[in-house]
From TrEMBL:
This is Probable allantoicase. The keyword Hydrolase applies. Pathway: Nitrogen metabolism; (S)-allantoin degradation; (S)-ureidoglycolate from allantoate (aminidohydrolase route): step 1/1. Its EC number is 3.5.3.4. It catalyses: allantoate + H2O = (S)-ureidoglycolate + urea. The keyword Transmembrane does not apply. GO terms for biological process: allantoin catabolic process; purine nucleobase metabolic process. Residues 16-165, 184-313 form the Allantoicase domain. InterPro entries: Allantoicase (IPR005164), Allantoicase_dom (IPR015908), Galactose-bd-like_sf (IPR008979). PANTHER family: ALLANTOICASE (PTHR12045), INACTIVE ALLANTOICASE-RELATED (PTHR12045:SF3). It comes from Actinoplanes aureus. Keywords: Hydrolase, Purine metabolism. GO terms for molecular function: allantoicase activity. The gene is alc.
Amino acid sequence: MEDFTALPDLASRAFGGGVVSANDEFFAAADHLVLPHPAGHAPRTFDHKGQVYDGWETRRRREPGHDFAVVRLGAPGVIHGVDVDTAFFTGNYPPHASVEAVEVPGYPGPDELAGAKWTELVPRSSLQGDSSNLFPVADRRRWTHVRLRIFPDGGVARLRVHGEVVPDPALLPKVFDVAAAEYGGRVVDCSNMFYGNPQRMLMPGLARNMGDGWETSRRRDNANDWVLVQLAAAARLRFADLDTSHFKGNAPGWAALTGITAEGDQLELLPRTALRPDTPHRFRLRKAPEVTHARLDIFPDGGMARLRLHGRADREQLWARMRR
């Protein structure tokens, strides 16, 4: 089975995902479902409604029916799988759940979404408590919203919706960050990610701390570390942001960027260039034809908070992804 958990979480608050509506939030708000960090738990912490949970929890049902929450994807796209995470819910998790999806343009409200034609991606399925419940999705259409149904009630810590980002080209400027995860850029290979996953470099916003970036182990040989990024579409790159913020005693000494064309040709975009610790750098790149991938080499090792690659993307490729 595909390890879809390595793909971005389209519903994450980090992309701007949010809960549009929920029929019940008596014990804990549904907004917790899309928080990017793992759920936590502090036993024996009570408020006026009971134990405090880092998740969504509904009251005990005393009549027929079930509970639901509607989530707007922060990054619309193709869903490969979902994780209904019941972390720390043991005697109060739902025994079953299902997931549906819909594509509605613009910014629909609860009433418009309630009347939309939803497609079932995950049929009613059994859940385990205090567990990641993983469900692959075969439908390869583009979606903007998902609806989690729980039967009959209970608590879910997080809803992860893993997949490929497919942005609407009509809403993209002519020049944008074609490496950004929110537009479909993704890391496809790297030499080392001992302290931090390189995909974090492509996330929106500034890094919060040193743990919110890519960091390699210390090298004891004569080689260097690197990461390979697949761009949102083939693009002519113009500027690169190499941000070493928070990395002070462990920033790379130098970096270089290489573009790779669809034919496999390698083009030097930024020669080996010195970097400063804890500093956002911007570099003008050498003019080159369209490239589909970019390789960042750091010398010899260290950490990078963010990588931005600004360029003019092939609009036909972007529209082809939408039409697919």
